[in-house]
């Protein structure tokens, strides 16, 4: 039985929608599905081993990040599960895109 759980905030869900839109536009539906499937596998990995992420005090107290190909996943651990509140392109400055987001 898989007991690995994670939660996506509405902002993180919006990030995934934008990633999908951009990837379909640039590289097609098949590549988009592969990329998003890989992201979801990474979310499950973080759910099973939340401490894999790197501490990100520059983003906020208790914030962790973990890379996936061209993106970085930002999350907190809340009630022993990752709460993913952002999935940004690795070239984006986190402070410019994560300030003001609901983290939990």
From TrEMBL:
Keywords: Toxin-antitoxin system. It comes from the Bacteria. The keyword Zinc does not apply. Belongs to the RelE toxin family. This is Toxin. It comes from Photorhabdus temperata J3. The lineage of its organism: Bacteria, Pseudomonadati, Pseudomonadota, Gammaproteobacteria, Enterobacterales.
